[in-house]
Amino acid sequence: DETEFRNFIVWLEDQKIRHYKIEDRGNLRNIHSEDWPKSFEKYMKDVNCPFKIQERQETVDWLLGLAVRLEYGDNADKYKDSTPDGAKNTENTAKNAEPLINLDVNNPDFKAGVMALANLLQIQRHDDYLVMLKERLTQDAIAKASQSKEGLPVALEKHILGFDTGDAVINEAAQILRLLHIEELRELQTKINEAIVAVQAIIADPKTDHRLGKVGR
């Protein structure tokens, strides 16, 4: 919105950048003036903005950077020892980044989750649930998973699962497995099509055996 854009520029100058003296900001503050674009262009030159007036996205980004730099310069002692909220507790940050590192495999909830997932994926049950998890890690499966494959990213939320397990994580896992299954079906269909084409090529190019009085291989 043009009005909001102009107000934004005026706010940056008034509150953060303060390149002009207060009495010299009149033309920039007059956001309803037809000459405002000229005033803004002059302002950009005065603050040494390297972008043109038409490059609004780049201009806004540059002016914000200037405002942040000036704000820090005015309050360096206040900000120099600041720590981002998310990094105040390093231990919690590490845990959040690697949630499986501290996973308790003996936790009853974890065991119940494995059993529920096994039922969903129709994996044969075993007294030792860790052995049951390994059943899917065959050499063929590992070799196939190790093959690098390029493809387009998939937005899971756009694919309807068709059922609800009651657990968001398991729902997402099921969506992924279904998409992988569809991919395997497509590969199979491609091989079937290739076989059909090969058979049709044989049928369409028969060899004639006059001795037998018939056409065929």
UniProtKB/TrEMBL annotation:
Signal peptide: none
Pfam families the record matches: RLL
Record PANTHER family: CLE
Family: Belongs to the RTRAF family.
Protein's name in the database: RNA transcription, translation and transport factor protein
Species: Myiagra hebetior
